Amino acid sequence: MIRGLVFVAALLAVQDGLAAPIAVRADCPASTAHDYYFASGTLSGADKHGDSFERAWYSSHLTVMGEPSLSCGTPGTVYRFTWLRTFHHPVAVRVVEEDGRAVLYAVELDGAGGYKPGKVLRRTQRTLSADEFVGLKQAFADAHLDALPVAGATMGRDGAQWIIETTNGAQGQRVVRWSPQDGAAQDLGLRLLALSGWSFDVIY
What we know:
Layout: H1 3-16, E1 20-23, H2 48-65, E2 77-85, E3 91-98, E4 101-109, E5 120-127, H3 130-143, E6 160-167, E7 171-178, H4 184-196
Antiparallel strand pairs: 1-7, 2-3, 2-6, 3-4, 4-5, 6-7
Helix pairs in contact: 3-4
């Protein structure tokens, strides 16, 4: 993947804000379809080239990770952070609440977020404590993803895409930010990373 293209896509994401609703589709495409993870027009809107580029970029990593499509419907309530750093390993942390139990799933690939995904490097799964899950739910509630303003950021050629998603199986919200230095996206992403139990030397 060309870093300049990553930068352009990220710039579009920051300018648009992307506090976009996730509408669960009644008829989900095959998992190999280009719009399996993200329906056409749901990332960069009217910018068809940017939207197609971003969908292909994110989907290539989520596919290797074996992550589900939240727009295709999932049981229970789901919270997910997908972290695509240009030069470092791609990571996804997902928490699923179903039948009063919250389970965390995390996966890290051995590729780079701005280039090829590589293959699965490690996975972890654990049940969150009641206090951990209450804290996570409250953090998402306090973030008001559906009302976030357009993000401002200092742009550069290299950085990381932070993709925050939540859905209750029928509807949800998605926010995309480029290397956030503060705010709800950074707070939620760091919280989910911490819950995974993994540590990372490079965070951007």
